[in-house]
Amino acid sequence: MGSIFIKGKTMKTLEKNNYEKGVDVSKWQGNIKWNEVINDGIKHAFIKMTEGGTYTDPQFVANWNAAKKTGISVGAYHYFRGASSTPEEQTENIRKNLTSIAFDTTKDWLAIDVEKRGNESVTPDAMADNLQNLLTRIKRDVLPNFDVIIYCSSGYWDSGVNWKKYDFSVHRLWVAHWNVEKPRLPKTWDKPGTTWFWWQHSSKGHVQGIQGEVDLDWVNTPSTNSYCSIL
Fold first, then answer.
1. Helix locations, the chain, DSSP H
2. Neighbours of 34 (CB within 10 A)
3. What CATH number is given to the structural domain containing 58?
4. Residue 116 belongs to what domain range?
5. pTM of this prediction?
6. Are 75 and 149 in contact (CB under 8 A)?
7. How many CB atoms are closer than 10 A to CB 52?
8. How many CB atoms lie within 10 A of CB 68?
9. What is the 3-state secondary structure (H, E, C) of 143-195?
10. d(CA 84, CA 70)
11. Distance CA 11, CA 132 (A)
12. What is the mean pLDDT of residues 201-226?
């Protein structure tokens, strides 16, 4: 992977801060050669699993099994729909697909991807209510006492979700903020004692084993982040 310049720094500078390299992928990356990915220094991967109440990414199981086989740490992510699918439907879609893989609650991650696309007409109140409903159902019915991660950007989260209604800060943050030296945290997590767990810092990365562009991430591992280690 080539160095990416950010305001006078390269990503290798950030790597020295003990952040580890990750990617997030979906069907759009096609058939991935995961052995080449890990050999290019990637240690972690989030893989798209589901969206809404019915959709499953067609590459999910293949990506999951192949990435795990190499020793890459993996997580599955679900794209949240604030109105077109109910929290009940989305919970069942997540549950059904998690049963199709050997999901290990002691090692693997699950993230809920909260974005504007597909949710343009949903009110901030409805986004917050339905997201909290989904998170509650996952913890109660699918993965008891499991720490689900939230993916979002401050650009959408701060205005598109009524984040003050619930304490979403109990969930670790996967923040999206591209091509900057330091990510801007959504207001829920912008307070002392909290920080990001994953940071999606580019949407135009290049990694051996993946054709075309791919999202690049930094991972703030528990060994280097006291906030992560207490969750």
1. 11-15, 34-39, 60-70, 87-98, 124-137, 154-160, 226-229
2. 24
3. 3.20.20.80
4. 17-217
5. 0.90
6. yes
7. 18
8. 19
9. CCCCCCEEEECHHHHHHHCCHHHCCHHHCCEEEECCCCCCCCCCHHHCCCCCC
10. 37
11. 35
12. 86
Tokens 């917050």 map to which residue? 128
89 in any annotated domain: yes
Q: Is 78 among the domain residues?
A: yes
Amino acid identity of 96?
K
Q: Is the dihedral of CA 184, 188, 193, 196 positive or negative?
A: negative
Condensed to tens digits (0 to 9), the pLDDT of residues 106-130 reads 999 999 999 999 999 999 999 999 9
At a CB cut-off of 8 Å and minimum separation 6, what does 191 contact? 169
Taking the chain, what is the end-to-end CA distance rounded to the nearest angstrom? 31
**Residues 77, 48 contacting (CB under 8 angstroms):** yes
Q: Indicate the number of domains in the chain.
A: 1
